[in-house]
Specification:
This protein is an all-alpha fold. It has three domains: about 110 residues, Serine Threonine Protein Phosphatase 5, Tetratricopeptide repeat (Alpha Horseshoe), CATH 1.25.40; about 90 residues, Serine Threonine Protein Phosphatase 5, Tetratricopeptide repeat (Alpha Horseshoe); about 150 residues, Alpha Horseshoe (Serine Threonine Protein Phosphatase 5, Tetratricopeptide repeat), CATH 1.25.40.10. Helix content is about 75%, strand content about 0%. It contains 19 helices and two strands. A two-stranded antiparallel sheet has the order 1-2. A hairpin with a 6-residue loop joins strand 1 and strand 2. Helix 7 runs antiparallel to helix 8 and helix 9 packs antiparallel against helix 10. It is flat and about 110 Å long. The N and C termini lie far apart (about 70 Å).
Length: about 475
């Protein structure tokens, strides 16, 4: 909360309780009231955020910033709320604006540094946003099955991506999959209990109108709610009567009877349906995985039969085929098993890097089966997106320890996993230069300049090119 304010006339910082600027004599009373009102709205927004009513907190904080754009506490809290509900772009924008307006001793520096330091998490959130955008495009074209797959992936990557919950719930409601929609609504409301869209979906799904749903959160309405309402009638004390007590007892009895005959059977029925739907989902997923494994095993058997036929047909004339084996498929199955384990539990960084490197080493040209080839491509796209930075970090560590031969292999993997990053190519050149292989080093230095002609390392690369050319001459 702001305890100081900036004079709008001369720009100096003065205490909040000042009525006149001590530097220029400007009347600060109207501006002071705006600052105080901004602080009140910030406190209300903070209370809403503490009870996870993000949809109510956002307009309060935005109104606070309209009154005082230098209220960095309000802007930083707004960024935290956006980050909590998965709007990473809005969160970063809020913190950058906060740091620009108030560069000294600002908590926005800590938030930005923390996000930038955890590049893997930021990459995961970016991947979730891309999945959501792809799902939105498919939903607009009524390709709901593809949209559901993309949205499930987005939620699995970022479990607090509120927009993905909203869109997936809407698609389930459109397809009349009410039990799935109801579970998603509860998961989304755990993130933001005041989310208007999810509350409307729940009201439409259950017919429960006990929770008020407003078309738009209004700061003015919240303020008006706090104002006292003048009485229109004079107070007149009622005479004691036993009838209200009797009515209360009858109401309780009727309520118990209704719950026994109407509410409890309905709840039991819903629980049974939810259990059946969950069991069917698990059975379908298990059947799909079993079919996938069976198909891949058939592929290996077919390849082994082909190898045996080739060896028998050409063994007499050429002494047999010595180099044909199923080692590539064996590596594929090992990677597939690790991938399945990765989907079932949270992998450590080392395990994720090992899986990415294992997928990279598989020769896709020797995966003849189209289904297996598609599976390999799918695994690579998903794992590379979150492991590329970590693989590059492993390669960089090997380089710094002067293990150049091993570093080259890991750097090649990092370059293939993230083709837009020129750093692995550059360090491959440096590794070859350190090993005295100047022709290879020249090739990779020039390739680095082709990928990133405006790289900040351009001058250094050109110097290293000159050194290598001198060594070759």
């Amino acid at each position: 909360m702001v305890f100081n304010m900036i004079c709008p006339y001369c720009g100096n910082t003065v205490a909040l309780n000042r009525r006149i600027c001590e530097f220029c004599g400007f009347d600060l009373d109207p501006y002071r009231r705006l600052v105080e009102r901004s602080n009140v709205l910030y406190n209300r927004g903070l209370k809403m955020a503490k009870v996870r009513n993000m949809s109510a907190a956002i307009p309060l904080l935005e109104k606070s910033l309209e009154l005082n754009k230098h209220n960095s506490d309000a802007r930083n809290l707004l960024g935290l709320i956006y980050y909590e509900i998965g709007d990473v772009v809005e969160a970063l924008s809020s913190w950058l604006i906060s740091r620009h307006l108030d560069p000294e001793d600002n908590e926005a520096d800590y938030f930005l540094e923390k996000v930038q330091r955890d590049t893997a998490e930021l990459d995961s959130m970016n991947l979730a946003i891309r999945k959501y955008n792809s799902a939105l495009k498919e939903a607009r074209q009524h390709n709901f099955d593809l949209a559901i797959i993309q949205l499930k992936k987005a939620i699995s990557i970022n479990k607090k991506f509120l927009k993905a919950y909203q869109l997936l719930t809407l698609i389930y409601l459109e397809g009349r999959e009410n039990s799935k929609a109801y579970r998603l609504i509860n998961s989304g409301l755990a993130i933001d209990i005041g989310n208007n869209a999810l509350l409307k979906y729940r009201q439409e799904l259950t017919g429960d109108s006990t929770v008020p749903v407003r078309d738009e959160y209004s700061v003015e309405a919240d303020e008006a709610k706090d104002k006292p309402i003048a009485a229109k009638f004079s107070y007149k004390e009622d005479k004691p009567s036993i009838f209200p007590f009797i009515n209360l007892i009858l109401g309780v009895i009727i309520g118990i009877i209704c719950s026994q005959w109407l509410v409890i059977p309905t709840v039991k029925k819903n629980m049974k349906e939810e259990y059946e739907n969950t069991r069917i989902d698990y059975s379908s997923e298990l059947a799909a995985k079993s079919a996938t494994i069976s198909q891949l095993q058939k592929t290996v058997t077919t390849q082994e039969k082909k190898i045996a036929e080739l060896e028998s047909n050409s063994g007499a004339s050429q002494g047999g085929i010595k180099n044909i084996s199923n080692e590539n498929y064996t590596a594929f199955f090992e990677a597939w098993e690790d991938y399945r384990n990765h989907k079932e539990k949270e992998y450590s960084d080392d395990e994720l890097v090992a899986l990415a490197y294992k997928l990279w080493k598989i020769d896709s040209n020797n995966i003849a089966d189209g289904y297996a080839s598609d599976m390999l491509q799918t695994m690579r796209e998903e794992i590379y997106a979150v492991a590329a930075k970590k693989v590059y970090a492993r390669a960089k560590d090997l380089f710094e320890r002067e293990l150049y031969e091993e570093a080259i292999s890991w750097l090649l993997a990092a370059a293939d996993m993230d083709t837009e990053n020129e750093n692995p190519i550059y360090f491959i050149g440096r590794s070859y230069q350190a090993l005295g292989k100047y022709e290879e080093a020249l090739s990779y230095y020039r390739r680095t300049l082709e990928i990133a002609p405006n790289s900040s390392l351009k001058e250094l690369i050109e110097e290293r090119i000159d050194l290598c050319e001198k060594e070759l001459t």
